[in-house]
Write a structure and sequence with these properties.
By secondary structure, this protein is an all-alpha fold. The protein is elongated and about 105 Å long. Helix 3 (59-74) packs across helix 4. It starts with a helix and ends in a 5-residue tail after the last helix. It is 62% helix and 0% strand.
Length: 255
């Protein structure tokens, strides 16, 4: 069998001359030998591997998603490093390789969840029929705090778990509690720019818009949690939200 494999030139397949001494020849001529050497020195580029249609999530993202599932189902107290590794289907060493500490993992998972929610919210905003309609825009922003689908329902449960943990974990509270209150500022900005809105006399339009935004965001957050607990229905919460949007966007009636 060994002789059959070496019976032809490795380049052109022609018959080989008989070996005079030493190792048997591999090439039929010096020309074929030179061609073989050139091929070894300049190999053809590797064939391009087609990229998958959907790139697989990163390992860090995969582990963060395990944190979300545990937090949503059992709370953050159940999210030990070993439990997270088991939920993610990886070893504890893999989790420790990608994250310096449990605090680092929890903070990173929270940041990734914020990015996920923002991506979904932007997609829903892009689907608005009239992005310039302040009522539709305010409703879209505020409905992100309602469990209208599986994604938002899970996110609300995860945020509730983080909030409970932040009450006793000052380091986590520093990350979880936004001192700048970006959602309230966004809502206040939309309210303040509504043309022709009648406002109260005392505080002025800007201060009134900020106060209304504080009430709206805090209120809808609590209402969303009530829906999760089954105390309220989505239909009832939407009626309440519509009532306050009507009141805010039209302002008090003339005396």
């Amino acid at each position: 069998m060994r002789d059959e494999k070496k019976s032809g030139c490795r380049v052109c397949g022609a018959g080989l001359p008989p070996a005079s001494r030493g190792r048997p020849p591999l090439y039929c001529s010096r020309s074929c030998q030179a061609r073989a050497y050139r091929a070894r020195r300049n190999p053809p580029p590797p064939a391009a591997v087609p990229a998958p249609a959907t790139a697989p999530p990163s390992r860090r993202r995969h582990i963060a998603e395990a944190v979300w599932r545990i937090a949503a189902a059992r709370g953050l107290d159940a999210a030990s490093m070993r439990e997270i590794a088991a939920e993610a289907g990886v070893s504890l060493r893999v989790v420790q390789y990608h994250f310096d500490s449990k605090h680092d993992l929890l903070v990173t998972a929270l940041g990734m969840l914020h990015e996920e929610n923002e991506r979904h919210a932007r997609a829903r905003a892009a689907a608005l029929r009239d992005p310039a309609d302040p009522r539709a825009l305010l409703r879209l922003i505020l409905e992100e705090f309602l469990p209208l689908d599986d994604q938002r329902r899970t996110a609300l449960r995860v945020f509730a778990a983080y909030y409970a943990r932040s009450l006793t974990d000052p380091r986590l509270a520093e990350v979880f509690l936004h001192g700048t209150r970006p959602v309230e500022r966004l809502v206040a900005g939309v309210i303040a720019q509504v043309p022709g809105r009648r406002t109260g006399a005392a505080a002025g339009p800007a201060a009134e818009a900020e106060a209304e935004a504080d009430l709206l965001v805090s209120g809808v957050t609590g209402l969303g949690m009530d829906v999760l607990h089954g105390r309220r229905t989505l239909a009832g919460v939407r009626r309440t939200l519509d009532y306050h949007l009507d009141r805010i966007l039209t302002g008090p009636a003339d005396a």
